[in-house]
Amino acid sequence: MGDVFRQSYNPVAGSVLLSALVAALPLVVLAYLLSIRRVTPWRSAIAAAGTAFLLAWLVWGTPLPLALSATTHGMAFGLWPISWVVLSAVFFYNLSVDSGDFDVIRRSLSRLTGDRRIQVLLVAFCFGALIEGIAGFGAPVAITASMLVGLGFEPIQAAVLALIANTAPVAFGSMGIPVVTLGGLIAPIIGRDAHSTTLALSAMVGRQLPLFSLLIPAYLVVLLAGWRGMIGVWPAVLAAGFSFAVGQFAVSNFVGPELTDVLASLLSLGSVALLLKVWQPAPRGAAPTTVVPSGSPGAPRDTPARVARAYGTYATLVVVVLIGQSGNFATLRELPPPANVTAWLKCGQPGNRLCADPWIGPALPGNPQAFRFPVWEFHWPGSYRLEGDRPVSRINRVPPVTPAATPYPLTYRLDFLVSAGTLVLMAAVVAFIPRLRRGVSPRRFVLVFLRTLAQLKLPIITISFILSIATVMNYSGMTSSMALALAGTGVLFPFFSAFLGMLGVFLTGSDTSSNTLFGPLQATTARVSGLDPVLAAATNSSGGVMGKMISPQNLSVGAAGVGAVGSEGVIFRRLIAHSLLLTAVVGIVAFLQAYVFTGMVPAW
User: How many CB atoms are located within 10 Å of the residue 208 CB?
Assistant: First the structure.
């Protein structure tokens, strides 16, 4: 299968600094095409992926077969599980819109209160977090901004508020896909499996962002109505922020990233709604009340049963995913092959013919990568050689990135039944199939799925090539070259780590993409600097969410959502100071966790 490739970290004139500058070229190409030339994201991603491939092959000396192997692995990882989760989540959301559930929930929220301070909490913060948790990718900003305009908010103000509210939940958006992606990428760097790494990252992010979940509701109301206005609704501010923060911490630390936003947002919505049953804010002089379109003559009036059914759709999603993650299939992640097969098929029973099949039974001599349903993990083709019947990576990391030359395995995992995308698809079936008698036809299921696929075809291409950039840079040694240069920031690295994450989201518009591009770099830099790589990678995600409000893509989404296309510059000027301030606070939190409150970093 070929000789071993030993990574080189200073191939450009023997200088780590020059090598780091050259290694950054794929990111520079991506930033230039996206931000200056305004090239579409999928074309920009392809160009940057091509740049990374050529540099890995021609400058870092990665053998052509290995460079091709890393490229195709990254693209495959972008398709499964990343794009599969996104596709299933957006399909579920589109079904809720098509069935009318989404409009029912929107109307129920608009009727809870006429006070705009509480409306911004319910719509922009609580409901926006629910949409982020399920769909993400710009949907929360577009939807909540347009809802605020419909409730009587000034358009630019509505866009600003929606963009700021879409911060705390972003790291766990789209069924936790930013954290899941990051876990898969840094697992080989820290020498752990992807599942346990993802759980550690989820816990770490869940020990950073709840601080901001407490802050953001008050921040929103102060921007809308000033400090005195915020004091007037402090019970609602506290209910929204505290309940979301508690839910975010608990779910991210004890369940995992997939349901963090969904459960936390539902808890926050419920807390504010219950509070409004027993408390209402005092009238604020001439403060305008809401204009509720759904309350106009001729608008539908939803029965309590219809409202309960709409919320039940999202409750079904929570239940199905929780069962899938905590049930027997989820335990397969923890069992080493072939025990996962033995446990599931009970191969010890006499007469079980399935055990004799090498494609679904235990790995046999000479067949070291047998297909073990429902979890299949194997070394990616072209990246390994056989030592006897054992596959060993052809890629070695070397000092100073590792203490000694160490194989850097390029593995791929297909977990058919426990993938979050599969569980969300199951939830869609469970939630909507019983409604076939109420007018939700199978044909509509198919049409909505096809429409979702058409909607996401270009984002899926973008995701695949962005991940190929990260994989090529990681396995060629380019990421380590940049990490060795960044290690020069010394003790201040945790603070600047937040700004690197923010820059990634500003450029790409996505915390997932930022984690893909910079997460491995952060983890590698932390290892070289003697810091915790999980803390550094998590800070990339937490800091990244503060850049989403000023990313060009999200500015465009916000402006379009309020009918103010062309006002992106105005919105940007009103947001840039908030983005920088909140990112700096993330950096301070990470700095304190690295050196003072070290017990906040989870053991992994």
Answer: 24
- The dihedral of CA 320, 431, 294, 280: what is its sign? negative
Strand-pairing partners, residue 6, are 396
Structure tokens at 129: 């977090």
Structure tokens at 235: 């019970």
**Closest listed residue to residue 537, CA positions, set 546, 545, 525:** 525
**DSSP assignment, residue 367?**
B
Residue 508's closest CA among 561, 457, 463?
463
What digits encode the pLDDT tens for the residues 175-217? Answer: 898 999 999 889 988 888 888 999 999 999 999 999 999 999 9
Q: Are the C-beta atoms of 263 and 247 separated by less than 8 Å?
A: yes
The model's pTM: 0.75
Q: What CA–CA distance (Å, rounded) separates 538 from 199?
A: 11
**Element containing residue 589 per DSSP (H, E):** helix 568-595
Q: Enumerate residues 6+ apart whose C-beta is below 8 A from 464.
A: 74, 75, 78, 79, 83
Counts of helices then strands in the chain (DSSP H, E)? 26, 7
Report the C-alpha gap between 215 and 544 in whole angstroms.
17
Which of these, 197, 207, 110, lies nearest to 413 by C-alpha position?
197
**Residue owning tokens 């803390």:** 535
Q: DSSP letter at 81?
A: I
As a whole number of angstroms, the distance between CA 134 and CA 130 comes to 6
466 DSSP assignment = H
For residues 482 and 97, give the distance between their C-alpha atoms in angstroms, rounded to a whole number.
45
